[in-house]
UniProtKB/TrEMBL annotation:
Pfam families, per the entry: DUF2897
Parts of the chain that traverse the membrane: 6-28
Keywords, sorted A to Z: Membrane, Transmembrane, Transmembrane helix
Xref: InterPro entries: DUF2897
Domain of life from the UniProt record: Bacteria
Protein name: DUF2897 domain-containing protein
Organism: Photobacterium sanctipauli
Keyword Transmembrane among record annotations: yes
Lineage: Bacteria, Pseudomonadati, Pseudomonadota, Gammaproteobacteria, Vibrionales
Length: 75
């Protein structure tokens, strides 16, 4: 236990931790994350939602037109 409290051992441990953290930061600094893929996915999702909304509006307009035609035919 005495050797663990030696200032040289403590200094070596501190230096090794600092060096390993710097190495990890250098390694992760150039990593590519999926941000561009996420942006593309969100744009595609938005476009699909807009197309679906347009289809729903067209269907609702067709349903209203059919009801109007039925009322005109009944009259």
């Amino acid at each position: 236990m005495e050797w663990l409290l030696n200032p040289w051992v403590i200094s070596i441990i501190i230096v090794s931790v600092v060096v390993s953290n710097i190495a990890a930061l250098k390694y992760t600094a150039n990593m590519k994350f999926g941000y561009k893929d996420k942006v593309k996915y969100m744009q595609d999702k938005h476009n699909r939602e807009q197309q679906l909304d347009e289809l729903i509006e067209k269907q609702a307009a067709n349903d209203v037109n059919k009801e109007i035609r039925k009322l005109k035919d009944q009259a």
